[in-house]
Specification:
about 190 residues; alpha+beta; three-stranded antiparallel sheet; 3 helices; binds adenosine-5'-triphosphate; ATP-binding; cytoskeleton; ATP binding; microtubule; nucleotide-binding
Length: about 190
C-alpha cells in the first residue's frame, strides 16, 4: 500500500520487495522498515547494536504488500497521460541486482494483477488511441539496459551487441497506427 503526494516534475519512488526464502532464514535479520504513510524507508546498521535508524523520504514508498496497479496508478499513469498530450516522459527502474526491477517493470504480462509498468503503459496508450477518432499516432519504443557502464538494446535480435553511448539508441521500433491497422517496423537510426 502507498499514499501518494502532490504531482511534481520528477518523482522518486522506492519499492521494497518481499523477502525471499534465503532472507527469511532464522539467522537473517530485517534491517529495512517502510513507512508508507510518511513515504519513508529506514535502514539500520546490523553491525552496530543500538544504532539509530537512518531514514530517507521519497515521493512515495511501496512495501512488500504493494500491488502492481497501485504503483502504476500513482507513479506512472499521470506521466503516460502527459505523454499522450505530447510531453516527453521517462520512467526508469534503478537498483541492485535482485531488488525487483524486472518484476516492477515487466511483472507477469499475462496476469492483469501482476503485470508491470510496461504492459500497463502499453494498455493505457493503446486503449486511449483506439478510442480516438480522425487522428493518426506514431508510437516509438526502445528498450535498453545499462549495466556496468555498458548499453544493450533489449529489442535487438542480437542483444549481446553493445551499443555506443549516443543521443538515440541505434534501433527503435516504430508503431504506425491508423484506426484499422497497427504495424511495427524495426528502424535503424543513423
Ligand atoms: N514486488 C514483488 N513481489 C513479489 N516478488 C517480487 C517482487 N519484486 C521482485 N520479486 C521477485 O524477486 C526476484 C528478483 O526480482 P527481479 O528479477 O525483478 O530483480 P532485478 O532487480 O530485475 O534483478 P537483476 O538486476 O539481477 O535483473 C524475482 O524472483 C521476482 O519475481
Amino acid at each position: 500500500m502507498s499514499i501518494g503526494k502532490k504531482s511534481e516534475a520528477v518523482k522518486v519512488v522506492v519499492r521494497c520487495r518481499p523477502l525471499n526464502k534465503k532472507e527469511e532464514a532464522p539467522n537473517q535479520e530485517r534491517i529495512v522498515e517502510v513507512d508508507v504513510r510518511l513515504g519513508q524507508v529506514s535502514v539500520r546498521n546490523p553491525k552496530s547494536s543500538g544504532s539509530l535508524l537512518k531514514s530517507f523520504t521519497f515521493d512515495a514508498v511501496y512495501d512488500a504488500g504493494s500491488k502492481q496497479n497501485e504503483l502504476y496508478d500513482y507513479a506512472c499513469k499521470p506521466l503516460i497521460d502527459s505523454v499522450l498530450l505530447g510531453f516527453n516522459g521517462t520512467i526508469f527502474a534503478y537498483g541492485q541486482t535482485g531488488t525487483g526491477k524486472t518484476y516492477t517493470m515487466e511483472g507477469v504480462p499475462t496476469d492483469p494483477e501482476r503485470r508491470g509498468v510496461i504492459p500497463n503503459s502499453f494498455q493505457h496508450i493503446f486503449t486511449r488511441i483506439s478510442r480516438s477518432q480522425n487522428q493518426q499516432y506514431l508510437v516509438r519504443v526502445s528498450y535498453i539496459e545499462i549495466y556496468q557502464e555498458e548499453i544493450r538494446d533489449l529489442l535487438c535480435k542480437d542483444n549481446n551487441k553493445k551499443l555506443e553511448l549516443k543521443e538515440n539508441p541505434e534501433i527503435s521500433y516504430v508503431c504506425v497506427i491508423n484506426p484499422s491497422r497497427i504495424e511495427w517496423k524495426e528502424r535503424c537510426n543513423s
